[in-house]
Amino acid sequence: MKTTLFAITAALVASSAFANGSHSGSHDSFGQPGRAADVTRTIQVRTLDTMKFEFQPAVGTIKKGETIRFVVNNPGQLTHEFAIGDTASQQAHAEMMRKMPGMQHEADATTVSLAPGASKTLIWKFDKAVNGGIVLACHIAGHYEAGMHTRISLN
């Protein structure tokens, strides 16, 4: 009985941590949530059912210290997400999504989940040095593997 109760409690604690965006690893290793007043540019992002992102204008290179507003729109029929991270945090996010495919991201400043027809805004300040660049990705089951990710250089 105690073992079962412990297992259930541990699962609930882990589930609430994941649901609150507490991924393994530190999300702030590549920046922090930005403020609207500090936005230096806005990029429109469309999540496409062809497993691609469409950026308008193109993201190009991100400058260290830049604050970008990503206005993300899902015009398709499938649920998508838009996650900002470095390579390590994206790998951790992918692993978590494999374990918990229905995971929600309401409290995660690095990720927005979008139902078909939805639009959301994510503002991020890229104020830290990053090894390997920034990765923009969708970790809905099979989407990343189908090519729904983009690597961006950070200067």
From TrEMBL:
It is a lipid-anchor. Residues 1-19 form the signal peptide. It is found in: Cell outer membrane. InterPro entries: Cu-binding_ET, Cu-oxidase_C, Cupredoxin. The keyword Hydrolase does not apply. Keywords: Copper, Metal-binding, Signal. This is Multicopper oxidase domain-containing protein. It comes from Jeongeupia naejangsanensis.
